[in-house]
Amino acid sequence: MQEAATTPRPQIASCPHLAAKESAPDIMLWVVGALAPAAVWAVWNMGSTAGTVFIVSIVSCLGTEALWNYLAKRPQTLMDWSALVTAILLAMTLPPRTPWWMVLAGGVVAIGLGKMLFGGLGWNLFNPALVGRAMITISWAGVLAVQKVPGGWFQGIDVAETGGLDAINGATRLAIAAADRAAEGGYGFDLGAQFEPLLFRNLEGCIGEVSAALLILGGLVLILKGIIDWRIPAGYIGTVAVLSGLCGSQGFLDEAIFNVLAGGVLLGAFFMATDYVTSPMTKTGRLVFACGCGLINCVGRFYGPMPESTTFAILFMNGLVPLIDRSLRPRTYGWVSKRE
Amino acid sequence: MPKPASLTNEGIPLSKAGFRGGVHPPSFKEATRASQTVTAPLPERLFIPMSQHLGAPCAASVSVGDRVERGQVIGDVDAMVSAPIHSPVAGEVAAIGTQLTPGGQRVPTVEIVPDEEQDFESFVPVPEADDPRDIVRAAGIVGLGGAAFPSHVKLRPPHDMPIDTVILNGCECESFLTCDDRLMRERPERVVAGARHIKDIVGASRVVIGIEDNKPEAYQSVSARAGGDVEVLSLPTAYPQGAEKQLIWTVLGKEVPRGKLPAATGALVHNVATAVAIADAIEHRRPLMERIVTVTGSVERPANYLALFGTPVELLIETSGGLSANVGRVIAGGPMTGAALADLSVPVVKGTSGVVALESGQTAPAVSDDQPCIRCARCADACPISLEPFAIGVYANRGDWDGSEVYRALDCIECGCCSYVCPTRRPLVQLIRRAKHALMQRGSRP
Lengths: 340, 446
What we know:
The structure holds two protein chains of two kinds. Chain A is an all-alpha fold. Chain A folds into two domains: 24-144, no CATH class; 166-200 and 227-323, no CATH class. Helix content of chain A is 58%, strand content 0%. Chain A has helices spanning 2-6, 24-46, 48-71, 82-92, 100-113, 128-139, 141-145, 173-182, 195-200, 212-224, 231-247, 252-261, 265-272, 283-303, 310-327. In chain A, helix 2 (24-46) packs parallel to helix 4 (82-92), helix 10 (212-224) packs parallel to helix 13 and helix 14 (283-303) packs antiparallel against helix 15 (310-327). The model of chain A is unreliable at 1-6 and 146-170 (pLDDT under 50). Chain B is of the alpha/beta class. In chain B, the strands form four sheets. Chain B has a six-stranded mixed beta sheet, with helices on both faces. Chain B has a four-stranded antiparallel beta sheet with strand order 2-8-7-4, with no helix packed on it. The longest helix of chain B is centred in the middle third of the chain and has 15 residues, at 188-202. The radius of gyration of chain B is 21 Å and the shape is globular. The chains are: A mainly alpha, B alpha/beta. The interface between A and B is large, with 47 and 75 residues.
């Protein structure tokens, strides 16, 4: 036939012959895009200190992955962009004043120990960014805890505003709240007055805590785009809200909102707990996982030794994911119960 | 039937219900949905494989040099699960050799050179019989949706499984294809007539014709002829709406129990084109000699052809103006379940619903296993059977068939939704097929 001469030999392949457009790198870049508003706003407000953390984290994470692949003689995997997501998330869990060498070490541990040692993308049990942060938290607890509000060209929350708590100068609202609870007194500040700064411009705490509103925005984009399952943020945030409302002393609603907005809950619920690799694959499993994260996070906050426990809450639940996946399998079509 | 109450259709409009999971590939049907069926040119030589159906292959009952009439039986076999094959033309048997089928098998094939003058109005009628199912068998009718399972077998459900509802499948959920759409628009009265014949044969009390809601014209024209015991339902457009188990779920809210025939739900599913063939066989004693084939994709002039069985696919492509230069694959059938053709000289057979030329940039990447699973669970969400394809894939890749069986590989209907959605392009349905094959070989059954 004529066309046989002019057209290439048809390709042979097994069906299906069509594939959905969305690929893994696309998904990773959507996550990066969803984190971008909060990250950019943080750097805008916190300045070059925060920018440095981002840069060091990105260089460290991508460099570790590239080096690992090179030494293991495996194909390069940087272009799946998952290391970039880890790098940005790691940076956002750290305070802006974190020394660069600490960030560097965090990135190496996050990618090396948290991901590549398990076999790379898809095989790790624990969220790599949180593995990195956990290592920093444990190794240099003092450095992280005594975060001075950086002076200079931007506005920090003034010590005077928080009720003259000189002893924990510059500590986050969560730390103050924890200290107050330990002292059996009321809070040194009014919870309701904290909502606005926490939502829009909060310069205490970690880089990722600058604007709760921007984190929520990014999370909603990912939910609407179908990239993350709403069950994880909803279950996590819902559990934190209800439990803090019940455990707290300042009224249900104020405690619930404050505990969701402050600290790492939003970053954790929208961007950490939703990591595909380290979260359950069934819908029910995701709800159980999310509620578990919220529960441990709240118990840690109210009764634990540290003011914040998002990192360990999610890491602990990561460890339970294989069990959750195995226990809550979907009911297969046609496997009907034998009544009658 | 035992099933969770939340899954039943009772109390809600039927069209709101859908099966679980599924995907929504781009339809690409626009190219041919307005194309009136035209008669394909008569080929110089017809290649008629002696196996165009599931079941026992036929043996040629003619010899080289024999004259054959249009409608004459040229191949048959004495087996329950089989269907005879008829000559679609008057002509002479030029050769009996072997030829590749669209499915990729090399089977004995009768080659017929047609007479120059053809009377397409007349044919050798199939013999009269008391049981209409015998007429259906003698007419060589098989499922025309693509599976090509002999229809007379489906019309004899086991005695302990009475059929109350006949479901006609007018979903045409595969992208690109419009052959059933055109049939329902051009011959709606025959679709309804076929539905009533099937209903009478199996003694059902009602017929439901299910049509996806992306075919409003077909829905309207069939609805206008339906009524009484024949209902027409508009179903949500989703792939694989037309898969038997999913269609029964959508229409009746019932699940086919594992390892049982669909008849266990009291439902019998036939394709709309099969129904028309059954009506033609019973009323006019007409054997199955041709079908509508959608030729579309990267061809100059996409079209719907009424093509005689044995017409080389390349003749249809040529009639449509040939392939464009950037063609990657040519598919017999729809792009989700069809077979990629290595050789375009293969003939149109009973199960050939379409010839789809896909551009090289349009096709799924050739299967590779380089990319890891990122555990996004899109495959599990898309699986209409609620399997966990990622897990079966991991086990099958290791050759761990026990693991594959625990994750219920044998329940897979091979619709391909899992491979379609996978963002790392893992060959999931391909791995599951491998596991199923190994499990069946060692005697495991669903």
